[in-house]
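Our preliminary data section would be incomplete without showing what the modeling component actually yields. Below, a chain of 338 amino acids is followed by its predicted structure, encoded as tokens that our downstream tools consume directly.
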Amino acid sequence: MVADVGLVVGVALGAVAVAGVVGAVAFRAMQIVQQGSVGVVKRLGEFRGVRQPGLHPLMPFVDRMVKVDMREFPMTGDQQSVITKDNVSLRVSATIFCQVIDVKAALFEIADYELAVDQLSRTALRAVFGELTLDQSLSERDTINTRMQDHMADAAMKWGVRLNRIEILDITPPQNVLQAMSEQKEAEQHKRAAILKSEGEQQAAINSAGGQKQSAILEAEGAKQAAILAAEAQMRVLELRAEGEKKAQTLRGQGEAAALEAIDQVAINPNTLAVLQLRALQDVASAPNTKVVVPYEAAGLVGGAQVLVDALKSGATEDAASANGVTRRGGTPPAVSR
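Predicted structure:
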């Protein structure tokens, strides 16, 4: 009975061992390659081919598969010391974005391509910063990235690795350089402030002068316009005055002509004319002048005066005769001779 139990246990253990061996063989015979990776098959250490993502059978104990990630991956190195062209020591760190494009070259052309790219980046970093000054190192990061990529591209391509881009993470100058840079920056800020202040004052002066100039121009134009308007107004006044005088002379001439025409049409009494002439002569004689003006028609005046005297005498005789007639009519009638 005990022998039977021992036999059963031995058979069970043998079955388990066989199942384990079969499982191990089955596991080694089937390999799964994930998406984004490829599998490199080596048969007895010899390169046999590249397997794409999926399930692939292998010969147990003969084939061996090495999986390689084909995606882009970053490699960030630690800070390292570099010396610039002007002998300034800097602490620099960079990140390299690379990608395996040739699996066979990456596995068989170099022992460890990741370590090789890291060491190559350190060498390229020192070489590139050694060609630049401190100011260029701090301000021209794009130039540094491009130069490093150009410096590493050919060597990395032989290993089946492509460098997509390189980024400088940090550049740390020494403390004394940082202090000097801070003082320089402060001085530049003061300089810029002084320049901006002077430029502002200059612009203000220019604007003020321009305003004064424009004001003077406008004032001169206003004075010119006012003078033109005053001259035009004065000219208009003179024109209107001249027109008024012309019209007045015309009306005066028309009145004198009408008066002369009226005088020509009216018959003047010689006695009245003589009286007027005597009055005019009297006015001339009574004027306070040192010269005596004798009219050219003096004889005519004397004749007119004589006519006037005769007229007065005749008038007196007629008055006397009239008075006598009245007396006779009122007194005794004359005797009638027989």
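The CA atoms of residues 91 and 178 lie 13 Å apart. The mean pLDDT is 79. Preliminary results of this kind motivate Aim 1 of the renewal.
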